[in-house]
């Protein structure tokens, strides 16, 4: 399962195997990256779906705070 947390300036994306922390302004870049990976590697099936959903949820939460 992919999850995200954030503070005022960064977000952390966590998966079972790894996690990474990035600047909030990079969220659109990472969301675009994972969407691109899903498109370009259809044999991956649903491998990127949880990550995309977690990032989209974070994007919506941040938009609601503005």
TrEMBL record:
Protein name as annotated: Uncharacterized protein
Lineage of source species: Bacteria, Pseudomonadati, Pseudomonadota, Alphaproteobacteria, Rhodobacterales
């Amino acid at each position: 399962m992919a999850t995200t947390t954030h503070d005022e300036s960064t977000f952390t994306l966590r998966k079972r195997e790894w996690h990474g922390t990035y600047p909030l302004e990079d969220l659109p870049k990472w969301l675009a990256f994972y969407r691109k990976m899903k498109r370009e590697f259809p044999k991956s099936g649903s491998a990127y779906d949880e990550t995309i959903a977690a990032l989209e949820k974070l994007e919506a939460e941040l938009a609601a705070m503005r």
